[in-house]
């Protein structure tokens, strides 16, 4: 492994930050989304109900614990931390005349704290947390006006932190727009009964792709040394059999992934994109100049989340899932308590597939296992299952780099400090190296406690993965 390889962790403001009504922050789309029970989807409201618990309001309170949490990351030896900026903390309504200085100062403090420990910030501009007012006033990403508003927000923070942040990611899991039944997190959209869902979906996708490209273009003007990445929810998918028709079904399953990354990396709607538009009978508007913007605003690196793999084929029962994805169960794999199939070798396969297609540097922006952690009588947390999961996935990552010569420059485990689940709002589904005393009802002391995996990851970084 390269001695400068970026080992670290990742989080999202809406799941981690809290402080939803502090520092001049406005409401985000997550602030009207209540938690759900195990395995169920969350419920979206039109406004905040005072008698209901909304997980994002406090989350795990990084807003007040950022110094403590960053110190814990530094103790593990983190070389990078992938985080997001909450748009509504910078522009409370998304279209305010001026940015919120108190919000900008908060992230100044966070970045200064990271840099104090030589931890490289990798900043996601849009991670499922757009201002709620943009949904209420403009209809979310249905509206082309969000391009200019999102780019103005991006320019504001890139200008402010141009000497503190080098790596930027435009949209988190941008292809979830095509995968989620209701693209609320990605685009602030709940489909209306009288609208064509496919056309709305493709129109919103085009607007976000243009906004991503414009962000890259404007960012390079601010600092030519900025490095920009996309972020894809990657689906490692296998054919159920050697039947040729099963291979075509796998090909089709990957189209929503390649659609976005082809545009962001290659700068155009490729034949793959056009084929998917035709397959879906999609129609959307483009303005003169859009194609040139896409061509100019390509990304420097490809980042992606990887948690599980699925199978596809004729007659496959879609009885497995993983991070919005669904498909068939693989009889050769074990699954987590949430039904996500554990496939370390799938990470190596995915790294090769992506690098073969695009030939630009890769970054693993999310990888981890959600589990129910139990405290022992002495207070310790023995999470050997997490260590095994990460050890096997990092072994696959090493093989991809050292045997297959894949160019990958970093790995951000999701998520180093326990945080609420994006899919269900649960707290009992824990990913972290650090336990946070909080339950699904928002009750707890917020005290941080190191798990066994904390020390394992500390040693992994110290030895640059030479001791797994």
Provide the CATH topology: TIM Barrel
The Cα radius of gyration reads 21 Å
Mean pLDDT: 95
Structural class, by secondary structure, is alpha/beta
Distance between the termini: 13 Å
Give the name of the CATH architecture: Alpha-Beta Barrel
- Which CATH class? Alpha Beta
Strand line-up across the major sheet: 1-4-5-6-7-9-15-16
Shape: globular
Largest sheet, strands/sense/barrel: 8 strands, parallel, barrel
Poorly predicted residue ranges: none
Relevant CATH superfamily: Glycosidases
Record field, number of beta strands:
18
Number of helices: 16
What's the helical proportion of residues?
A: 25-40%
How many separate domains make up the residues?
1
Percent range for β-strand residues: 15-25%
Which helices and strands, and how do they pair?
Elements: E1 6-10, H1 13-16, E2 33-34, E3 43-44, H2 55-58, H3 62-76, E4 80-84, H4 87-90, H5 101-116, E5 120-126, H6 132-138, H7 145-160, E6 167-171, H8 176-179, H9 184-187, H10 197-222, E7 227-233, E8 236-239, H11 244-266, H12 271-280, H13 290-296, E9 301-305, E10 309-312, E11 320-322, E12 325-327, E13 334-335, E14 341-342, H14 344-358, E15 362-366, H15 384-402, E16 408-414, E17 434-436, E18 448-450, H16 452-462
Parallel strand pairs: 1-4, 1-16, 4-5, 5-6, 6-7, 7-9, 8-10, 9-15, 15-16
Antiparallel strand pairs: 2-3, 11-12, 13-14, 17-18
Helix pairs in contact: 3-5, 7-10, 10-13, 14-15
